[in-house]
Amino acid sequence: MDPDYSAQDVARCDLCKTTVAQSYCDFCHVKLCKPCIGEHISDEYDKHKIVPILRRKSTLIYPKCETHQNKNCEYQCEDCDIFVCSVCAMSKQHKGHEYVKLEELFTKSNECIGKDKEQLENISPTYEEIAIELENQIANLDVEYEKLTTEVSKQREDLHREIDNAINKMEEEIGEIKVKHHSILKEHLNEIKQVQSLMQKTLVSLNEIEESNEVSPAIHYSSKVEEFRKLPPKINVSMPKFIPKQVARDELSSLIGKLTPLSTTLEERVFTGKKPNTLLVRELLDEPEVLNTIKTGHEYLRNVACLNEEQIWTRGKTADIKCFDIQGVLQKTIKTKSGMNPSDIALDIDGALLYSDWLTGKVYKVNDDQTEEIISLPGWAPKQMCVTSFGELLLIMPSEDSTQSKVVRYSGSTVKQTIQFDNCQPLYSGTKTLKYITENRNRDICVADWGAGAVVVVNQVGKLRFRYTGHPSPTKNKPFKPFGITTDNQNHILTVDGDNNCIHILNADGQFLRYIDNCDLKVPYGLCVDSNDILFVCEYFTGSVKRIKYLK
Fold first, then answer.
1. CATH topology for 284-551?
2. pTM (predicted TM-score)
3. Where are the beta strands (DSSP E) in 144-283?
4. Nearest to residue 511, comparing CAs of 498, 493, 495, 496?
5. Quick count: other Cβ atoms within 10 Å of Cβ 41?
6. Which residues are CB-contacts of 90 (< 8 A; sequence separation ≥ 6)?
7. To the nearest 10°, the Cα dihedral for 353, 358, 363, 369?
8. Which pLDDT tens digit goes with each residue over 334-361?
9. Residues 6+ apart with CB under 8 A from 499
10. Where are the domains of the chain?
């Protein structure tokens, strides 16, 4: 979107800075209001090109003819491969030569530039993913090498003082290998970042050429897409292993065992590009309808989670997590280990129940009525969460002093990614106020931040895409304060506006589509969508879950 012409503001005059601009100087590239036009063209009237603002940058800036200084080159001599003016074209030097209009070349080159820009923007996130993967590997090196050193130390505890020197020597070897391991990964990361930097410079250059009216840079542009499309090989560095050896005490030289050497291999990466969208497009119903209502008996119903109609999990302000079928019949009840209400509930891709407990600072998994701890978070409290399409867990985590909030991606119990800042500024409010989270089908991460009064959406590598702060409506008089949030198979984002008793539906780019406000919702709170795009909405005070059909 052109920032000068967004829906948030109108284009202002570049001279007076206050009046709405109606015109544009295609020579100087400035916006002008009517009163300022005279002042702008007062120096050299002939050189300025004033056009209506909607036709900005429509006047091409041709190169000056080197032979005829007062003429512009509007042709290229195909025989001589040079730019020429109309006078040159009539001269004996170019008699019988073929010409092509620079305007045509400019148009063709801009089409190529636009395509290259689109392809590079498609390739760029892949490099960001590679960089994040390498940064995570480097960040986890200390933990992995600490484990390795611990194994060696355990072996040393079984031996006598006589072998301490040999143990120390091996620990030094581990340190040397670690430095080499770190160096290999860091060098590869630097190479990746250099290519990223070059790609960003190329994109900046393409933007400048695309936005410019100058012909020469566009025509002389040479595509670098193929260079970037060929991804660098993936470096796989295998961890050395400690192999203990049980030997007689007199064999001091071989008591400790040995370390496997650091091994480095290259694994070829292939850029696959974005997958085409094969979703069956379903339109929104003009009037969403309530299919049925499930009475949960919860006091202060807060969350609902389901993958299908067989198991509908709910939680309120007690330790009971209840499961119902589609008819509203209670199937089972799970109690939290702490005896307190959980922070949130979710289902993994296999249908197992997950719940986060703010009191213990842990996340639990319930499978076949067996509860196991899967994540422990000292210093940060696990709050709301969701399971991604790849089976990873996204957790909202405020700090214990409530000054910070972040999103952390877990694979199993391993931290894979932390999302907290946008250009050094916090993405999320730092208070203990509610923040619900979901992942869209395009892998965007969507957070309903009640404290900020906004839905904050970042892409899969944590870059801010947009903030949605509500939609103006004469019937929605209270401030937008989102609670629950979910997404569907159409890449819609649905978020609860509890104070206005409605649900906002957005597209994947944050554009408001419509409200769900005709279903007699009473303080809606949590919500989810099943695999058939049926919406389940919690009503906070009534303890009811409403099943709503909103797509055709």
1. Neuraminidase (2.120.10)
2. 0.56
3. 234-238, 242-243, 258-259, 263-267
4. 493
5. 18
6. none
7. -40
8. 999 999 999 999 999 888 999 999 888 8
9. 478, 479, 481
10. 3-55, 104-267, 284-551
